[in-house]
Structure formats: structure tokens, C-alpha cells
């Protein structure tokens, strides 16, 4: 079936959309990438979303408005992507509640009713909550795709995603958030230039790593916590950065960007080395930062390849993951990996909002998939998704 995957990551740049053909044959899922796009949020909406994050304030009225407006944006993005039979949405995360190392709740906004109304299609959404209710971390859900997709890779392969938060999946082993990916870099870039992105690592390349600040940042207890674990921008936020800066002499903007880029590289590399990685397959927005990739390669000491080299577009990988999760739920297949999230067992993820017609689910699959095969996608002119768009 043809499935659309939608999400907006912790960087809150916009909505990532991927269209995929998915087929379950025996114990193998076949995924054909059909195209991806990113639809930018209207700047005023993005500003309100950022302001709603902790430690900012967001009352019930504003939360209701944001939930509706994000849902409308997701519905419009899905309509841009063309024909499909199912939509899966990871929504926009506003808060991931972790207490004493255990995830207690998670909030993704962008109500699926708006997507269903805009497209007429059934929507699988709220994909994290069931894993958390079963005692898991609810993240990173990428483990299910990575474990299936890279199952036949030799050695100890680690899949890395660098979004606002960085996470890794050890094929056949643990999966967890390593700490900030772009989150602190984006904060520092916004402070320096007014734009929440260090495009091409330009600012970091002009600076030098401040060892004193790096030591303060690395002292955060999250990095020493054992897996399974998860985190978010409610932890690695502006207050976190301000407290670290208060402990050192004044830091130039370019040196701050260089140090935060080094922090991301060091914390990812330490986690990968601790897992005995022999190869790292990277995806996410961070792979477009050449300064970060150079630092990562220097600290890893093992080959690092970008997921595009293995047939899965790095920019769209999380959206393809979302499509896969929706497809698994639709076919009655659990979408979590209890050994990595810490959940009590396999669980069907999410809830289903009917489209314009009656809800007709297929017979549940009788076998759980053991691998995922990515087949070549359609030619660009046949791809379902339009180029990057703004509202």
C-alpha cells in the first residue's frame, strides 16, 4: 500500500513528508521510497511553538490553538504529497516528560482529525504513548526500522540520527538518545545571527573549541545514565546553555558554536564506541553540517556512511520511519522494540482515526517481520512529493 509519513522534529523547522510503497511478504517488509519534501511552518507559528517549550509558558488556550493549527498544517502537507491509502503522523513533540530516568508521558500535537478531514484518509497517530504506558521510553522509535533494515550488515552496525536530539540504534542491541544533536547548536546560532541554524557549519568553522566550556557541558549527568533512556529540548534548552556559560569566562559566538558542535560529536562518538560500533550509518539534518561530520569521523575511529549510500534518503529517513510505523500498526504488527525502549513487551502503536469512509483493516499479519528491504524508488518525475515548500 502507499503510505504517507509526516512529522516535525525537535528542531521545529517544518513538516517532513515522505511517500512510500510498503509491502509485507512473509518476514520481509519491502519499502520503495517515492519522494520526500519539507513544508516550512509559517514563521509566526514556529515562533509560538518554540515559545511553548519549557521553560516557557503555554496555557490551555494556547495549547488548544497550537494543536489545531499544527494539525491543519499537517493536513495541508499531506494533501501536497499526492495520492495514498494511509497517513501516519508522529506530530510535533512539545514535551517529553522524564522523571528519575523513566519516561512518564509525552505530548505530540497536530490532531489527526484535521489530517483525516483534509485528505479523506485514515490516519495512524499518537505513536509514542503506548510504549510509554507499557513502561518504555517511547523513543527512539527508529530502532524498529534500523533493526530490520540493517539486520544483514556485518559487524556491529550503529544507526545514528542527528535531529534536534541525537539517537542511536545498535543493530541487535540498545537504542537511546545520546544527547543534543542540533538543539544547542540551533539555540546558539539564533543568539548569534537571529537564524536558528548554523548553515554548513560556517560559524563553528570560524571558531575554536573552548575546553573549559566543553568540560562543563560534558558533566551533565544524562550522559552517564545507562540505557534505555530518552531526553528532549525540555532538558537541553536555553537554561541548560545559560547555566553552563555562567561557569566560564565570556565566550565568543563562533567559539560557542564550535564547542557545541564538538559536544554533539563527542557525546555521539562516546556512545557508539561504548557499544563497540564497527560502522555508523548516519541520517538526519545534522549530516548536512560538514564540520559536525568531520568531528564525528575524527572521534569515532570507524567508518561513517550517510544513509543515502544504502538507498534510504537521509533527509527523509524519519518520515519513512513514520510511514513504516503506521503500516505496521495497520497490519496488526507491533512497532516498538521492547529490548531497546524498555517496554514490558511488544505493543501495537498509536490510534487510528478513520478517513471519509468506513474503517476496513486487513487481516492481521501472522508473522512479525525480520528484515526490511529498501528497493529503488521511482524516477524524480514520478515521485509523489513536491519540492521543499513554504506556506
TrEMBL record:
Pfam families named among the record's database cross-references: AnmK
InterPro entries: Anhydro_N_Ac-Mur_kinase, ATPase_NBD
Family matches, as SUPFAM superfamilies: Actin-like ATPase domain
GO molecular function: kinase activity
TM helices/strands, residue ranges: none
Residues bound to ATP: 9-16
Source superkingdom: Bacteria
Enzyme Commission no: 2.7.1.170
Region (Disordered): 338-391
Catalytic activity: 1,6-anhydro-N-acetyl-beta-muramate + ATP + H2O = N-acetyl-D-muramate 6-phosphate + ADP + H(+)
Bias (Basic residues): 367-376
Pathway: Amino-sugar metabolism; 1,6-anhydro-N-acetylmuramate degradation; Cell wall biogenesis; peptidoglycan recycling
First-tier enzyme category under EC: transferase
Keywords: ATP-binding, Carbohydrate metabolism, Kinase, Nucleotide-binding, Transferase
PANTHER family in alphabetical order: ANHYDRO-N-ACETYLMURAMIC ACID KINASE
Family under the similarity heading: Belongs to the anhydro-N-acetylmuramic acid kinase family.
Protein purpose: Catalyzes the specific phosphorylation of 1,6-anhydro-N-acetylmuramic acid (anhMurNAc) with the simultaneous cleavage of the 1,6-anhydro ring, generating MurNAc-6-P. Is required for the utilization of anhMurNAc either imported from the medium or derived from its own cell wall murein, and thus plays a role in cell wall recycling.
Annotated protein name in UniProt: Anhydro-N-acetylmuramic acid kinase
Organism per entry: Saccharopolyspora rosea
